[in-house]
Specification:
It catalyses: ATP + protein L-histidine = ADP + protein N-phospho-L-histidine. By secondary structure, this protein is α/β, with parallel strands linked by helices. It contains 20 helices and twelve strands. Among the domains are: 160 residues, Heat Shock Protein 90 (2-Layer Sandwich), CATH 3.30.565; 113 residues, Response regulator (Rossmann fold, 3-Layer(aba) Sandwich), CATH 3.40.50.2300; 99 residues, Four Helix Bundle (Hemerythrin (Met), subunit A) (Up-down Bundle), CATH 1.20.120.
């Protein structure tokens, strides 16, 4: 584009100069024409021809006149004399090619001498015969002088005409040349413009063709990605289903105290292999989602203290088996609850610690957790340091590339996906992973993510909770089309005291509920023949069955949440799962759970926190409960209209009001609903609020101390 502008500027300058020269030459030609016209007006030949004419008349008058009658001769002589006198006195412009002196000597002198001679002769009247003859003779001799003068004038006029013709031709040729040059330049410029337009049109067509090709390639890639995603989802479901029974039965066997040491070790190998296979499957699926920007965050409230205990329990034994020291350093400032995606944070730390454990043969591995307050967030940092083999300089650029491994990494095993996914997770949480490594000395990886501090500890995720609920006396319906998995889940529940019923599809589940009204909860698979789990749960909710229904599926939570029927479930568990996860899900909402929490209305703490007097607190508490009742109606309405974001907003507002007035149990219920809809919780909401209102009514009659 710059080159085109330069050429355009140059052409414009040339055209301007060309036009200026044409104007200049036009003015010069105009002046020349004016000069020639003036020359025509002052034509010298006319004066000389008049002189010749008067000479002829004078000669005729002398030839045929009478020397006794001199009037006519004197008249002609006077006229002829005036003509000669005009030339002699410069009254007539002389030829520029003849100087005045040359004219006087060569041309005018004979004529002037003749005039003087004639004047002397004509003084006498009459003229004697001798003088008359002499006058006629001298007059005849004037013919040559007159002819010479006229000839000189004609020569001058001829040269003037030649000069004029040459000047006119010169200026005309210059004008033609410049006009031709201008036309050529304009033609060249027009050709350049046509070429530029052709070039632009050609480029536009190429871009259009490229865009079409790119669109077709993108569509083909989208089709291929969609096919790949469907394939991976199908494979995931097909692999997770048998993995559920493999890991479930191994977990159940490992809990039996009658198992000897050798059997426990061999079953442990099976469990480790199954867990490794599950990890590979999860990594491949997450990589596919990352490539399509479909990874989403599942925000929950966690206790970092519990996360620390879980990581210590996971890696302490593994480090001891390799003769390594494993330490977790925990900043005192992290005795807080944070709102973040606990699953992805856990996976990042497990990947980093697992890599350190894999490549460290002696020394120690440490995890340091610390944090700091940012502008509008809390920055959580985790540093993993090891004394392993380190990373070569030439391999450091590859460690975050999927499926890329150094030679040492290939020998150690693995897919090469852990670090790539970990960095994707960190960046999804508005953070990153940086590292430094020295070959032969070890490596340090630092993770930074953005979180939010949860001021109230209500609703904290139960990571690492070891307390297991009792299922004694509970009747649980297990709905699963795979016989092996169904019997495995029933066996686990029976081990913990539950009575189980079985169904292999949604129709049988609805029938079992009608036949056994005493069923306390349902564990429902998603994909089943005849009627799937979501359809069955929706029908049961329409029939006003308000007890917990838990979904067990191989599909990820973010996909299930897109289904309209997901709101019918009280909780979700993804296949394969551990026994502790199943027990934790079932024990989440036991009967009278809210009455075991230690009081419905903690008015003393609320009064102290608000700084109110007792009477003012009672009024505020009543307004708060009324507002919570309104929010409860809005929450249920939003769920019916499938407006989950609005429902979460109402739950958040209700939780805040309940905690502010000291209704701790009510706040706990709303905190749980803020994370995900749970019909088991919704069913008891009204009762909890009414019980809280009763506690407030009792305070109205309490004596003020």
């Amino acid at each position: 584009m710059t080159r085109f502008r330069l050429i355009l500027s140059f052409v414009c300058i040339v055209l301007i100069v060309n036009f200026s020269l044409i104007v200049h030459f036009e003015l010069e030609q105009k002046r020349e024409l004016e000069r020639v016209n003036q020359l025509g007006m002052d034509n010298q030949l006319w004066q000389f021809f008049q002189l010749s004419s008067e000479y002829a008349r004078l000669r005729e008058a002398l030839q045929y006149g009478d020397r006794h009658q001199l009037d006519e001769i004197n008249l002609r002589f006077d006229i002829y004399f005036s003509r000669i006198n005009g030339f002699a006195n410069n009254q007539v412009k002389l030829p520029s090619s003849v100087s005045k002196e040359a004219l006087d000597m060569a041309l005018l002198k004979p004529l002037v001498d003749y005039i003087h001679f004639g004047v002397e002769i004509l003084k006498h009247d009459p003229i004697n015969k001798t003088n008359w003859i002499l006058l006629n003779q001298r007059t005849k001799e004037q013919q040559e002088a007159v002819n010479n003068l006229i000839q000189a004038a004609r020569s001058h006029d001829s040269r003037s005409i030649d000069d004029y013709r040459k000047n006119i031709m010169y200026w005309g040729e210059l004008r033609i040349l410049l006009a031709t040059t201008q036309i050529i330049i304009l033609l060249l410029f027009a050709a350049l413009g046509v070429y530029a337009l052709w070039k632009t049109e050609t480029s536009r067509k190429k871009l259009a063709e490229f865009a079409v090709t790119l669109q077709e390639a993108r569509l083909q890639a989208d089709v291929a990605n969609a096919a790949k995603s469907r394939f991976l989802a199908h494979i995931s479901h097909e692999i997770r289903t048998p993995l559920t029974s493999i890991l479930g039965y191994t977990d159940r066997l490992l809990r039996k105290k009658t198992l000897d040491k050798e059997g426990r070790r061999e079953i442990g190998y099976i469990e480790n292999s199954g867990t490794h296979l599950l990890s590979l499957l999860n990594n491949v699926l997450d990589l596919s989602k990352s490539e399509q920007n479909k990874i989403s965050l599942i925000i929950e409230t966690i206790s970092l203290k519990q996360l620390r205990l879980e990581l210590e329990a996971m890696f302490n034994m593994m480090a001891k088996e390799k003769g390594l020291r494993f330490n977790v350093f925990f900043d005192d400032g992290l005795e807080i609850d944070l709102s973040l995606d606990a699953g992805k944070l856990r996976q990042i730390l497990i990947n980093l610690l697992g890599n350190s454990l894999k490549f460290t043969q002696r020394g120690a591995i440490s995890l340091t957790l610390y944090g700091e307050y940012g502008v509008d967030c809390y920055l959580l940092h985790a540093a993993v340091v090891d004394t392993g083999c380190g990373i070569k300089a030439e391999d450091q650029s590859l460690i975050f590339s999927p499926f890329e491994q150094s030679k040492l990494g290939q020998l150690a095993g693995g897919t090469g996906l852990g670090l790539s996914l970990s960095r994707d997770y960190a960046r999804l949480m508005k953070g990153d992973i940086i590292f430094s490594s020295q070959e032969g000395e070890g490596s340090e990886f630092i993770v930074t993510i953005e979180t939010q501090v949860v001021t109230a500890s209500v609703g904290t995720s139960l990571i690492g909770q070891s307390q297991q609920p009792s299922l004694m006396g509970r009747i649980i319906l297990v709905v699963e089309d795979e016989t092996i998995n169904r019997e495995m889940i029933c066996g686990i529940l029976q081990d913990f005291g539950a009575t189980t019923l079985q169904a292999c599809n949604g129709f049988e589940a609805i029938f079992q509920v009608k036949q056994h009204p005493a069923i306390d909860s349902i564990i429902m698979d998603y994909q089943m023949p005849q009627m799937d789990g979501m359809a069955a749960a929706g029908i049961l909710r329409q029939q006003q069955w308000k007890k917990p229904i838990y979904l067990v599926s191989a599909s990820p939570l973010e996909e299930l949440q897109q289904e309209a029927g997901f709101v019918a479930f009280s909780g979700h568990l993804r296949k394969p799962f551990k026994i502790d996860e199943l027990l934790l899900l079932l024990g989440k909402w036991q009967d009278n759970n809210y009455k075991q929490a230690g009081g419905l209305l903690d008015y003393q703490t609320a009064i102290h926190s608000l700084g109110f007097k007792f009477e003012r607190y009672l009024a505020l508490c009543q307004r708060g409960l009324n507002r919570v009742a309104e929010l409860e109606l809005l929450y249920k309405s939003a769920l019916k209209q499938q407006e989950l974001n609005e429902a979460v907003r109402y739950a958040h507002s209700a939780k805040g009001i309940a905690l502010q007035i000291g209704a701790i149990i009510l706040g706990q219920h709303w905190s749980a609903l803020e994370v995900e809809p749970d019909y088991a919780v919704i069913a008891v909401l009204n009762q909890v609020r009414e019980d809280t209102q009763k506690e407030l009514d009792k305070l109205q009659y309490m004596p003020i101390v």
